[in-house]
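Q&A log
Question type: sequence-to-structure
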Amino acid sequence: MILLLSWTQLTYAESIEANKFSSNIQEARYRVLIDEIRCPVCQGQSIGGSNAGLAKDLREQVRKMIIKDNSNDEIRQFMVDRYGDFVVYKPPMNINTYLLWYAPFTFLVLGLFFFIRSLSSKKKTTKNQTIDTSKAKDLLK
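Response status: OK
Response body:
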């Protein structure tokens, strides 16, 4: 039993990283950046929340770049150049991401258009049905 408990503790110990920074500002930048950059392997997690090997390597790369005094924008651009616009949670607006930015609005407008159109066609159908009913009653007399 003790062996089993000690084995499970080892899996949790793997996710703890001890990073050394020269200031609290660097550590705060590191925390912000690893939460803003998406893991290319996990695709739903940031590199800060992922235990994938690539995420660990990317966290280390971010740490090294912060120590080298690269700006946050330079670090983000490095990741985008290497892994594409997908790797950041806030992709830039460019020709490759227009669909990503404007598709929700386009679908909303199209949905409203078809909804209003279906409502107006129901009104026409209702009018036609009342006319047909009155014609049928006249024919039956």
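Response note: The CA atoms of residues 1 and 7 lie 10 Å apart.
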